[in-house]
Design goal:
Length: 346
């Protein structure tokens, strides 16, 4: 099947749903069906993208439009229910992260996908991020020798994330599990798994440390021992006035750094007189387009994506382990898994 024979439906027409819908159109998807529980949102996006269907009735869309593929872009609490209905209707699924707020019901979803012979691909877009991919390739390629340790540091100031909206009216204010910074920042844990290695031991700490007018946690920190022996610190927050995303790697032969503010991967080996630097693209949308291209190719060819529901489950299990470790004040051990999917170079 080619792209012009495929029917896509986007469920949830907010921030990420609109982006995916626009990118699908730009990539040449001939038509789209759009669904949002706030019907006016679906209608507005459909009008901007000249899409055929705009509704708040998911079941009617699935029966009437019969999509080959459904993009689940609702808040996390609705992911499982929407994905299950899409699979039951015979569609493949691209599910935004996190797969669900907790592991409850996740195995049932993965079993359903198997029974229906359809796949779930995870919207873990950082695996398609140019800078993080170059970082991962340099780690695996041995630019700084053997991985010994790392620090991942990510933060932004919540009120600045969507400046046109009042952050206090946003989901983080409601104190639901999925709205705390741990799941909101789950990309960091996912990046850790595919770029650095699988964790086996986890310590965690979570807190609401700021005066932000929200009920959810605004800072999460974890220390992890990886299967390869390295020890990694991860920090995600809703607090930093200047958004930052950085990963510093300690190798047996030198230092390696990805820093979003410099849009570069830098390294300095033990004998180097200075830092070497590789610039990477600054276009954020490129990773979303690369992710969609992988999804479209899998839907069109019937190939199962390597970044599948089991990967989403593993990253969610890691987030759950951080929470359990934080709440119990104990070290949590995880089963060892095979190496996760890494996007090939385009
Ligand atoms: N991969 C990424 O980079 C990235 C970026 C942003 C958000 N996300 C994820 O995407 C998901 C959506 O986030 P967002 O920022 O777009 O949220 P959003 O609030 O902007 O949009 C969510 C939309 O879903 C609609 N909705 C809620 N429940 C629904 C249901 N049951 N059926 C249909 N529509 C429903 C809402 O009305 C809203 O329009 C979340 O899981 C989030 O974690 C991922």
């Amino acid at each position: 099947m080619s792209l012009d024979q495929l029917r896509f439906a986007v469920i949830g027409c907010g921030s990420i749903g609109s982006r995916h819908a626009q990118n699908l159109r730009a990539l040449g998807a001939p038509d789209l069906a759009l669904c949002d529980s706030d019907r006016a949102r679906a209608v507005q996006l459909a009008s901007a993208l000249d899409a055929q269907v705009a509704t708040d009735d998911l079941d009617a869309l699935l029966v009437g439009y019969r999509p080959n593929a459904v993009l689940v872009c609702t808040p996390p609490g609705a992911h499982l229910a929407v994905a299950m209905r899409a699979l039951e209707a015979g569609a493949h699924v691209l599910c935004e992260e996190p797969l669900a707020p907790t592991l409850d019901g996740v195995d049932e979803l993965l079993d359903l996908a198997e029974r229906q012979q359809r796949f779930i691909m995870m919207g873990m877009c950082h695996r398609f991020h140019g800078g993080l991919r170059r970082l991962q390739q340099r780690i695996v390629g041995g630019t700084v020798g053997r991985l010994l340790g790392a620090q991942m540091w990510t933060g932004h100031y919540l009120p600045d994330r969507h400046p046109s909206a009042d952050y206090r009216a946003g989901s983080s204010a409601e104190g639901r599990l999925e709205d705390g910074v741990l799941l909101d920042g789950i990309h960091a844990l996912d990046t850790l798994r595919w770029a650095l290695g699988e964790p086996v031991d986890v310590l965690g700490m979570l807190g609401k440390v700021s005066d932000l007018d929200i009920n959810a946690e605004d800072l999460a920190a974890a220390i992890l021992r990886l299967e390869n022996g390295a020890i990694v610190e991860v920090h995600v927050d809703h607090l930093q006035r200047h958004a930052v995303s950085r990963c510093e790697v300690i190798g047996s032969e030198g230092n390696l750094v990805w820093d979003s503010s410099r849009q570069a991967v830098r390294w300095r080996r033990s004998d180097d007189v200075g830092w070497s630097e590789e610039r990477v693209s600054v276009d954020t949308n490129e990773m979303y387009v690369a992710e969609l291209c992988e999804f479209i190719d899998c839907v069109a060819s019937g190939r199962r994506p390597a970044l599948d529901g089991a990967e989403g489950r593993a990253t969610l299990a890691l987030a759950s382990a951080v929470r359990t470790a934080a709440e119990s004040k104990r070290l949590i051990s995880l089963p060892v898994r095979p190496r996760p999917f890494v996007a090939a170079d385009s």
